[in-house]
Design brief:
Layout lengths: L2 H13 L2 H18 L2 H23 L7 H6 L9
């Protein structure tokens, strides 16, 4: 994060009321605690694996022998009278 952006955020934070500052700090603390918990990391890892499996499955369904990718990028032979 650049120094300019950091100073901008600090000025915004300074402009808040004391209650808003406390609420913001509480929410940030809870998010940090949740992100570093083992259950959150396990959930993230499980989600990554699920997404990877879906990606692999979607690529497995492509019929490479028919060469769909090449056909979809080929310019058509149609002539347009403009």
């Amino acid at each position: 994060m650049s120094e300019f952006v950091l100073k901008w955020y600090l000025r915004l934070f300074d402009a808040l009321s004391m209650q808003s500052k406390l609420d913001l700090l509480t929410q940030l603390t809870e998010r940090l605690r949740d992100h570093h918990s083992i259950t959150y990391q396990e959930k993230e890892e499980k989600e990554r694996l699920t997404n990877l499996k879906q990606l692999i499955f979607s690529w497995n369904k492509i019929d490479i022998e028919e060469d769909m990718i090449t056909k979809s990028r080929t310019v058509s032979d149609k002539v347009y009278d403009l």
